[in-house]
Design a protein that fits this description.
By secondary structure, the protein is α/β, with parallel strands linked by helices. It has one domain (3-73): Rossmann fold, CATH 3.40.50.720. The protein contains 3 helices and 4 strands; from the N terminus they run αββαβαβ. The protein has helices at 3-9, 30-41, 56-63, and strands at residues 12-17, 20-26, 46-50, 67-69. Strands 1-2-3-4 form a 4-stranded mixed β-sheet, with helices on one face. Helix 3 links the parallel strand 3 (46-50) and strand 4 (67-69).
């Protein structure tokens, strides 16, 4: 997975399954945190934050993020 390409082309994602709404933000900067906060206000049941800086996990949780992924920690096989 090319992180630079992702940063340029993929910022937010969302989906719906039955009565559940999911949303996520890639890169937890100012805009990404606003997406998380808005998703919480919209009633998202699962909000996923993705960032290469693990220190942003606690900040994302303050805004309503439920799950955090650091792509640098993924083991691809």
């Amino acid at each position: 997975m090319d992180v630079e390409l992702q940063q340029d082309r993929c910022r937010y994602f969302s989906g719906q399954s039955r009565n559940r709404f999911y949303c996520g933000s890639i890169w937890l900067g100012g805009i990404g945190l606003n997406v998380i906060q808005g998703s919480k206000l919209a009633g998202a049941s699962r909000i996923i934050g993705v960032d290469i800086n693990s220190e942003r996990e606690s900040l994302g949780k303050k805004f309503g993020m439920t799950d955090f992924i650091n792509p640098k920690n993924l083991i691809m096989s």
